[in-house]
Write a structure and sequence with these properties.
Elements (H helix, E strand, L loop, with lengths): L1 E3 L8 E9 L3 H8 L8 E4 L8 H5 L4 E2 L26 E2 L4 H4 L14 H4 L3 H7 L29 E9 L5 H11 L3 E5 L2 E7 L6 E7 L5 E11 L5 H8 L24 E10 L11 E2 L5 E8 L1 H7 L4 E6 L11 H8 L6 H4 L10 H13 L1 H16 L17 E7 L8 E9 L5 E6 L4 H21 L2 E4 L2 H9 L35 E3 L14 H20 L7 H5 L3
Parallel strand pairs: 1-7, 2-3, 2-10, 3-7, 4-17, 10-19
Antiparallel strand pairs: 5-6, 6-13, 8-9, 9-10, 11-15, 11-18, 12-13, 13-14, 14-15, 16-17
Helix pairs in contact: 1-6, 1-15, 5-15, 9-11
The structure holds flavin-adenine dinucleotide.
Flavin-adenine dinucleotide (FAD) binds next to helix 1, strand 8, helix 7 and helix 15.
């Protein structure tokens, strides 16, 4: 059943065995596991079916350095479906190395291992509609995928890992009807959780406070609460929920909430040349039998990460920087000149000094008119395969003129307690909640990961003799930091740790010291991996759902908060 808060009586006090706060990838994946019970489930979602300015404005906040981080009301969507309404759909699981306590990576180590998440990935892959759960280029399609660079078998990189692409699936549009048809799960749209109250000793949450933008107020008396509001809003809600027993915010007795904020270090750099026939380089997507798009990538091996003391990282073959007209491509120039048609999140990385001013603009125009056929053909393909197709062509891919590629880098960030989300001291939103202040930081270690990855690739290509990579460390550092934190990956702000001293939540995503509140979000990742987070967010949500179901089935009667207090 899907309702709007406005249809409820003012001051309503609702009851639920499980209250899920947030209807994005995590919240919807969780709720779907309860369609037929056990227990009564209430999913609280701030937004509506589609974007609205009022709800989106609740996400606005402050940024310590606007050159390093986008405004907090960009790169996330406050609507039913959350940011899956605009995500890119790139999927891959975490690597085994990500879970390890790595002596060379401060604050690394998960309290769970890869084997804990492994059983949940196939179903997560299905929910994300990313095809079969097979991330090996040798087996993903019959006969294996085409080699990325024919004959190149580097020692420090694996070349047979792949990424798969979701439709990209908008979780609300795709799964909303299932929730609507369920009698067991109630979804409340236009409803904001403004705080969580606990017993005086702070060991158990009792009440979820609710408000709508139209003035409705209510509450939920919930036996169990899962916070699934995304990696920036999880710390906001925890920090804003203050009271006896948790004066610094829920789960924040050790001042860990909001710290260790990570995104990814990413950017495009270098000039990569090959003395190989054109078809020896696979620069694009392949399609699985079920239509899923897939792409190969080069991953720094765990042995190399350990040997050189750096983070996890991947690289993809890319085209030269789009703003720089010297690439000579009519397609890239067309894209650059029409970038204003794209949403902010997809336009941001297309901006650049090289394209600004009359001279570069004229050169871009010249590129376009000198090969109008390629630009027209490309526009038609994009219209058919991206705009009009249900399973969308994942991204613009253009073979660089002259076969000079660049490398697109996506790397892990070191967990850093000084990189953090706090509450603004002055600004409040329309519901009276303190807004967030984002102080995202990068470290020299982050840049070193990029530098070592590029250097090893340059050395391996030189040794092989059929390719070369030219880059400079200064240019690389500039390229990695040019746009600051990588977009919509908000990680680490309520990290998982075996003890209250090392984490906000335990290995089961339950807040240390509070028996009935869990977090379902990339906020719990203690390290950021090279991988985009959503597939793992969904896998963790599925595991949490199974654990909650088992617990709820063990308490067959209506498990009200008081029943749980009595030991349920
Ligand atoms: C442009 C872009 C591209 C991306 N591309 C990729 C990609 O290719 N691959 C990938 O893995 N990831 C990608 N991501 C990230 C991906 O979108 C997120 O990882 C994913 O959406 C996180 O799911 P979530 O449920 O944790 O949070 P969200 O999707 O943010 O959902 C949180 C939900 O909580 C609701 N909410 C927030 N506060 C409250 C409150 N107080 N009360 C009630 N409800 C509340 C929000 O309205 C929202 O619906 C991308 C993100 C962006 C922005």
């Amino acid at each position: 059943m899907i309702l709007d808060a406005q249809t409820l009586e003012h001051g309503a006090s609702l009851e639920a065995d499980l209250c899920i706060i947030g209807g994005g990838a995590a919240g919807i994946s969780l709720a779907l596991q309860f369609l037929r019970g056990p227990g009564r489930v209430l999913l609280i979602e701030s937004g509506h079916q589609g974007p609205d300015a009022g709800s989106q404005a609740l996400y606005a906040g402050e940024v310590a350095d606007p050159a390093l981080h986008s405004p907090p009301d960009t790169y996330r969507q406050r609507q039913f479906g959350g940011s899956t309404t605009i995500w890119g759909g790139r999927c891959m699981p975490l690597d085994a190395v990500d879970f390890r306590q790595r002596p060379w990576m401060p604050h690394s180590g998960w309290p769970i291992g890869p084997e804990t998440l492994a059983p949940w990935y196939p179903e997560a892959n299905t929910l994300c509609e990313a095809g079969e759960y097979d991330y090996n280029a040798n087996t993903a399609v019959a006969g294996g995928m085409k080699p990325l660079i024919a004959g190149f078998t580097p020692e420090n990189f694996t070349a047979d890992g792949i990424e798969r692409f979701s439709l990209p699936t908008n979780f609300a549009a795709r799964y909303g009807h299932r929730l609507a048809a369920s009698e067991n799960v109630r979804v409340l749209l236009g409803t904001n959780c403004t705080g969580i109250e606990t017993t005086p000793d702070g060991t158990r949450a009792t009440t979820v406070r609710l408000r709508s933008l139209k003035g409705w107020e209510g509450s939920v008396n919930a036996a169990r609460i899962v916070i699934a509001t995304g990696g920036l809003e999880v710390p906001r809600l925890l920090l804003a929920s203050r009271g006896p027993g948790h004066e610094n915010g829920i789960g924040n007795a050790r001042d860990l909430v909001g710290r260790y904020y990570m995104c990814h270090i990413a950017g495009t750099s270098g000039r990569l040349r090959f003395s190989l026939p054109r078809d020896a380089i696979q620069h694009g997507y392949e399609m699985a039998w079920d239509g899923t798009y897939m792409r190969r990538r080069l991953t720094l091996t765990p042995a190399a990460q350990e040997k050189y003391g750096v983070g996890n990282a991947v690289m993809r073959l890319h085209f030269p920087r789009i703003p720089d007209p010297s690439h000579g491509s009519s397609v890239l120039s067309g894209l650059y000149l029409m970038r204003w048609l794209l949403p902010y999140e997809y336009r941001k990385r297309l901006a650049g000094e090289e394209g600004k001013g009359l001279g570069p603009t004229l050169r871009h125009l010249w590129n376009m008119v000198s090969d109008p056929l390629a630009a027209t053909e490309f526009a038609a393909t994009m219209l058919l395969k991206r705009r009009l197709a249900t399973r969308k062509f994942p991204s613009i891919i253009v073979r660089p003129p002259g076969n000079v590629f660049s490398l697109d880098f996506h790397g892990e960030q070191e967990p850093n307690p000084e990189s953090r989300i706090t509450l603004s001291e002055h600004a409040r939103d329309a519901l009276g909640m303190p807004r967030i202040r984002v102080d995202w930081r990068w470290t020299q270690g982050d840049i070193r990961t990029a530098e070592v990855t590029f250097r090893l690739m340059a050395e391996e290509l030189a040794k092989w003799g059929k390719g070369s990579l030219e880059f400079s460390p200064a240019e690389l550092a500039h390229d990695m930091l040019r746009d600051g934190a990588y977009g919509g990956h908000h990680i680490g702000t309520a990290r998982m740790g075996a003890t209250p001293a090392t984490g906000v939540v335990d290995g089961h995503c339950r807040i240390h010291g509070i028996r009935n509140v869990w977090i379902s979000s990339a906020a719990v990742f203690p390290t950021s991996s090279q991988a985009n987070p959503t597939l793992s967010v969904v896998a963790l949500a599925l595991r949490l759902a199974a654990e909650l179901k088992a617990e709820m089935a063990a308490v067959p009667e209506v498990a009200t908060a008081s029943a749980v207090a009595a030991g349920g």
